[in-house]
Write a structure and sequence with these properties.
One of its GO terms (biological process) is regulation of DNA-templated transcription. This protein has about 220 residues and is an all-alpha fold. The protein is about 75% helix and about 0% strand. The chain has two domains: about 100 residues, PRD domain (PTS-regulatory domain, PRD, Orthogonal Bundle); about 110 residues, PRD domain (PTS-regulatory domain, PRD, Orthogonal Bundle). The radius of gyration is 21 Å and the shape is elongated.
């Protein structure tokens, strides 16, 4: 950290301080001290990467906006400040990366741990579906938007332990399994991931709803 303070140009400290002060003034965020240095470090390397032509993509910026709107707004403000102060055009993917710093850098954030867990579950559900069907998501498609919303709500139910319960014999569940076999195989992969990572098993009802939403995505493929 001492070496960081010596090596980093003072402009990046000033930018980080300006961004953090914005978060404090607008959202009354209680910031951990380490964020001042970690954000300075991030901004410094971000500018260097852009100047070197290296861009780190963040495919879940839109999901970040829905799950953590305050931190997302700080990220939007941040890239504008960085651009204004350095003259370097910062890609929008960087919004999510900076927002993560503020999610992790707050004192007693009531949704810190849960939000990160929800975001991780949502992101990995999308990734498993993408790999299983070799999809390229169309973010402007209504079915995709509905799928994102469903995945987020499912993640919320998972972390709050409030999943939709199944009846003992649900004919509709079996019907969906039989008519959407490949989609259900994908849901089983998602279930395996949740069992491995969080020791959680989706109920039959949750599996059915997820299967239906995946089917709708594939109809638009």
């Amino acid at each position: 950290m001492i070496r960081l303070a010596i090596d980093t140009k003072s402009i990046y400290f000033e930018i980080a301080n300006q961004i953090i002060q914005y978060a404090i003034d607008k959202y009354e965020m209680k910031i951990l001290d380490y964020l001042y240095l970690s954000l300075t470090d991030h901004i410094s390397f971000c500018v260097k990467r852009v100047l070197d032509g290296v861009v780190i993509s963040n495919y879940y910026v839109r999901e970040m906006q829905r799950l953590n709107p305050k931190e997302f707004d700080v990220g939007c403000y941040a890239i504008q400040v960085i651009q204004d102060r350095t003259g370097v055009e910062i890609p929008k993917d960087e919004i999510g990366n900076i927002a993560f710093h503020f999610i992790n850098g707050q004192v007693d954030h009531p949704f810190n741990e849960l939000s990160l867990k929800m975001e991780k579950i949502t992101r990995n559900i999308l990734h498993i579906v993408k790999l299983h069907f070799h999809l390229v998501y169309n973010e402007n498609d209504f079915a995709y938007s509905r799928f994102i919303t469903h995945a987020q709500l499912l993640a919320q139910r998972i972390v709050s332990n409030q999943m939709v319960e199944s009846s003992e014999k649900d004919v509709l569940v079996e019907s969906v399994k039989n008519s959407c076999k490949e989609e259900f195989l994908c849901v089983e992969r998602i279930n395996m991931y949740l069992e491995k990572e969080f020791n959680i098993t989706l109920t039959d009802q949750e599996q059915m709803y997820l299967t239906i939403h995946i089917h709708r995505i594939l109809e638009k493929k």
